[in-house]
Amino acid sequence: MNGLQDHLNYPIHPDEGRSNVAWDIVLTLITCGIYNLFWQARKFRVLNAFLGRADFSFWHWFFLSIITCGVYHIYTEYVMGQSIVEIQRKLGQHPNESLSTLCLVLTILGLALVTDAIQQGEINRFFESPTP
Predict the structure, then answer these.
(1) Model-level pTM?
(2) 80, 99, 121, 91: which is closest to 11 by C-alpha?
């Protein structure tokens, strides 16, 4: 297939959903975390598009994370892990069944950037052909 037809089966264009994880980490570190807000918003858009529903809202997440001193962020990372597994099943890919637990534990341990990198890596897989 040509490049134009390749993205027609996806609910969001691959250029809007895929990302270079290493570059996302570097930009997050260089900007002292500010870029991570844009990265999180992109992940929300991609997950909502693939789920076909609006489960994730950037501003809802942003304000509730502040109000709850990060507890809502921890919860959201867990739910994002569950959503990624749901989408992978729908796409016929082999999901990591422990992804949501991994996201939860890493985020609790203060390794949210690692969680973001793992999630983005899994999201990038959405744009690959299903595994046999």
Answers:
(1) 0.88
(2) 91
